[in-house]
Amino acid sequence: MAPIPGSGLAKGLAVTLRTMTRKTVTEQYPDAQPDLPPRTRGVIGLFEENCTVCMLCARECPDWCIYIDSHKETVPAATPGGRERSRNVLDRFAIDFSLCMYCGICIEVCPFDALFWSPEFEYAETDIRELTHERDKLREWMWTVPAPPALDPGAEEPKEIAAARKTAEKLAAQQAPPVTEPLADEQARAAEGPTRAQGDSQQQTDQPRPSSSPTSGLAGPPSDRSAADDRPQPDPSAPAQPGTSPRPKQEGQE
Amino acid sequence: MTYALATAVTAHPGPSGVPLAAAAHGFLSPTGVEIAFLLVGLLTFGAALVTVTTRQLVHAALWLVVALGGLAVEYLLLTAEFIAWVQVLIYVGSVVVLLLFGLMLTRAPIGRSPDADSGNRWAALAVAVAAAAALVWVVVDAFRTTWIDLDGPAAGSTEVTGASLFQHWVLPFEALSVLLLAALVGAIVLSRKARAEKSSPPVNSRASAGGSPVVPESRNHPSGGHRPTEQEGAR
Amino acid sequence: MNDALDVALRLLIVFVVFLTFPLIVGQTEHKVMAHMQGRLGPMYAGGFHGWAQLIADGVKFAQKEDVVPAGADRRIFQLAPAVALLPYLLVLLAIPIGPGEGAVGQVLDAGVFFVLAVMGVGVLGSLMAGWASANKFSLLGGLRTAAQLLSYELPMLLAAASVAMAAGTVSLPGIVDAFEWWWLPWQITGALVFFIAGLAELQRPPFDMPVADSEIIFGAYTEYTGLRFALFLLAEYAGIVVLCGLTTVLFLGGWHGPWGADGLGWVWTLLKTAILAFVVIWLRVTYPRLREDQLQKFSWTLLVPLSLAQIALTGIVKVVIS
């Protein structure tokens, strides 16, 4: 069946006219902030409590845009008669974003999760030298790092969480049931507010769990992570490190 | 040159018999028209002179535009509005554009062309003067006692022109039309014949160029022209 | 003295129209084109939806340096924008927007011829610009302009002649006066041919081969900067206004409308012109550029025969009804 001559022309006119009556897709950027996906590579943030000055990032960087200075400090013995320990103290951590090509190798390679992608992108300067940002600025960007998106329903459990669950189960088997309750409570308190819903939905979509304590143990770590974002105080002691640890695993899975 | 002489002849004895220096009659009075006519005539004459003397080809064409446009203004001043616009349409709008097109297509350097001058220029001048003199003499002789009345109804309006063209002059008009038509047909025949002699390879190559990349071989093939069509049919 | 005042006033009004209407068309093009492509177009200049974008553009153009290439033919190069722009100003003088002598800049006896003749002169500006730029791309653009003008002038003229035959006059107000509603179906072929050929003469997409940016940069206007470049652009948009106005007057009945013929006729003229201008923009957004040979073929094998057929039809109907 041959089309009527000129019908293609009319169709073209119809397409443009229809597009005109529809809503445009333009984002009015300076007036409205763009809606960026969670893993946007905007800028690199530094969580310096996690940094051990191992220099892996600086060595792996293809552009040589990471500058790290440090010195060694001696920590007096913790117990009388004990041995003095030495540790590296970070003096300077700077990234030259005029050289950086946003490959993300430093973030991949960091063994202690001290570097993160932040979606922040408005850091243009009028002088190229001002694009070298020092640790305080990198630290400010750290607090703009969003929580990692939830796992897909039915996704494999992150290794860290699996390990934590196994220990929790072992503990539960060893000890009497009343002992597990306060532990679960503690983790639920850390979760708090909006992250609760996330944990709930995960509970629904996941396969049914045998008992209450492993489930809360599963929902805990991701919410710990976001709790660390809400609370910018450096807290080198405990929850931040386990909280951040699931991240590279999830990236590997997706 | 023709223009200037014609100008002089037509302009000096004013239609209303008033000397040029007479007091003004108001906005665009007959005297005003005469002055304008004279000035435009001089301008046209100058442009025509530059057209034939300049060494820059494209400048010559553009000065020709000025000359032809000036002529159109002269028609306008003589109330022949229709003729004036036709002059602009045909000569300025088409003929000169065609001329410029031809110039640019072949050779139009910026600056002087050394070969734009001719050794025959004196002979050409003589011919031009003779032609101008003949024309002026004929025109003056024919219209010796006829004056255009600028105050009355326009003698050169479209209606008047059309009426006289298709009532009194219909035979010459039709004869000219036939002549032009014959010229047109002749031009087409000439251009088509020249192409037909060497047309077969280009036609083949064009037909097969759309068909397949096997063109270079099939061009010399006797059956080369058929293969692409078969392929098209197969699709 | 009153006459002089009248003439001055008319000239002033036409001049103001000449300066504002093209800007309105240009701004409409910005916005319509943007929305047809799913964008918003200018949003900042002037505050409300970027209404002052073209004024801002004008200021920018005026500030720019006026460069004349070293190898260019200086005088012709500088004269070309004026030659391209002035004809449209003259044509605007002759287009009537309402009935009576008050609604037209100057009543001309041979209006159709005047309008077409002067519009043809405008192309000389492009030719001069293309040649004088001392740039091969410009020269090619000029050549394409000339070729396009030569092939599209004929169907345009023939289509206009058809209407003149139907009306029995070549005066623009006379043609609109004689208009009847059934001319619309009668002259529809002529109208289409006229409009398309006019688009080609203005070098509007899809007939913008002479300024095809992917091949010859910007054709004849490649070397122009600043105000002279702006004048060429203004000529293009003034050309749209003139073409749409002419099509309205010749084929769409000008100030005739279903109602409100008394006093509000000029609204009809402006409305029809605006709709046609929208169509010009619409076509630009929708269709890709024709190739040079397609362009020529389209004119000679389609538009010219169609316009001749229209003339024949007009003649037959005219003889039958009289």
Automatic annotation (TrEMBL), chain B:
Write down the Pfam families for this protein, in alphabetical order: Oxidored_q3 (PF00499)
Q: Name one GO molecular function term.
A: quinone binding
Spell out the reaction equation it catalyses: a quinone + NADH + 5 H(+)(in) = a quinol + NAD(+) + 4 H(+)(out)
The primary location reported for this protein is membrane
Q: How does it sit in the membrane?
A: Multi-pass membrane protein
Q: What general EC class does the enzyme of this chain belong to?
A: translocase
Q: Which function does this protein serve?
A: NDH-1 shuttles electrons from NADH, via FMN and iron-sulfur (Fe-S) centers, to quinones in the respiratory chain. Couples the redox reaction to proton translocation (for every two electrons transferred, four hydrogen ions are translocated across the cytoplasmic membrane), and thus conserves the redox energy in a proton gradient.
Give the similarity note. Answer: Belongs to the complex I subunit 6 family.
Task: Write the protein's name.
Answer: NADH-quinone oxidoreductase subunit J
Q: Which organism is it from?
A: Streptomyces longwoodensis
UniProtKB/TrEMBL annotation, chain C:
Q: Which residues cross the membrane?
A: 7-26, 79-98, 110-133, 154-175, 181-200, 229-253, 265-286, 298-321
Gene Ontology terms: cellular component: plasma membrane
**Listed InterPro entries:** NADH_UbQ_OxRdtase_su1/FPO (IPR001694)
Compartments where located: Cell membrane; Membrane
Which terms in the Gene Ontology molecular function aspect does this entry carry? NADH dehydrogenase activity; oxidoreductase activity, acting on NAD(P)H, quinone or similar compound as acceptor; quinone binding
Predominant location: membrane
Q: Which reaction does it catalyse?
A: a quinone + NADH + 5 H(+)(in) = a quinol + NAD(+) + 4 H(+)(out)
Any one biological process term the GO annotation gives:
aerobic respiration
**Tagged with keyword Heme:** no
For membrane topology, the record states: Multi-pass membrane protein
Q: How does it assemble?
A: NDH-1 is composed of 14 different subunits. Subunits NuoA, H, J, K, L, M, N constitute the membrane sector of the complex.
Q: What does this protein do?
A: NDH-1 shuttles electrons from NADH, via FMN and iron-sulfur (Fe-S) centers, to quinones in the respiratory chain. The immediate electron acceptor for the enzyme in this species is believed to be ubiquinone. Couples the redox reaction to proton translocation (for every two electrons transferred, four hydrogen ions are translocated across the cytoplasmic membrane), and thus conserves the redox energy in a proton gradient. This subunit may bind ubiquinone.
Q: Name the protein family.
A: Belongs to the complex I subunit 1 family.
Which protein is depicted?
Answer: NADH-quinone oxidoreductase subunit H
What taxonomic classification does the UniProt entry list for its organism?
Answer: Bacteria, Bacillati, Actinomycetota, Actinomycetes, Kitasatosporales
